[in-house]
Amino acid sequence: MEKHLWKYVLILLAAASLIIGCSAGSAAVPVTGLSVSPQVSAINTHTGPWTLQLTATVTPSDATDKRVLWISTDTSKATVDARGLVTAAPGQNATVFIIVQSFSGAHALTCTVTLN
């Protein structure tokens, strides 16, 4: 699983490098940190609910681009939308890693979601 995790990180870095841009004449405030809550969690896929909200916080609060990218390492078991909402497929027993990355590509974290 760890081998595949790096593939997704590289995809995120490539995507972020295509999106990065600054307005001419303005001083960009770079992202210096990223946190995610919760970092470890579980979803009961037998009784529900089958969703989990993850929250990313970019620092500093006045960073020019506070957007983040979300990706699931196994979309057949759980997906994650652009707002960090994880939705598990019912009846799954697995561990899925959810990656959150700053658009600048400088910061990334992995959340562990256990489906049981």
- Strands, count: 9
Spatial separation of the terminal alpha carbons: 18 Å
CATH fold-level assignment: Immunoglobulin-like
Strand content: 35-45%
CATH architecture tag: Sandwich
Integer tally of domains = 1
Describe the 3D structure.
This protein is 16% helix and 40% strand. The chain has a 4-stranded mixed sheet with strand order 2-9-8-5, with helices on one face. It has one helix at residues 2-19, and strands at residues 33-37, 40-43, 51-53, 55-59, 68-72, 78-80, 85-88, 94-102, 108-115. It is elongated and about 50 Å long. The two termini are 18 Å apart. With 116 residues, the protein is an alpha+beta fold. A hairpin with a 5-residue loop joins strand 8 (94-102) and strand 9.
What structural keywords apply?
Immunoglobulin-like; elongated; about 120 residues; single chain; 4-stranded mixed sheet
Topology summary:
Elements: H1 2-19, E1 33-37, E2 40-43, E3 51-53, E4 55-59, E5 68-72, E6 78-80, E7 85-88, E8 94-102, E9 108-115
Parallel strand pairs: 2-9
Antiparallel strand pairs: 1-4, 3-7, 5-8, 6-7, 8-9
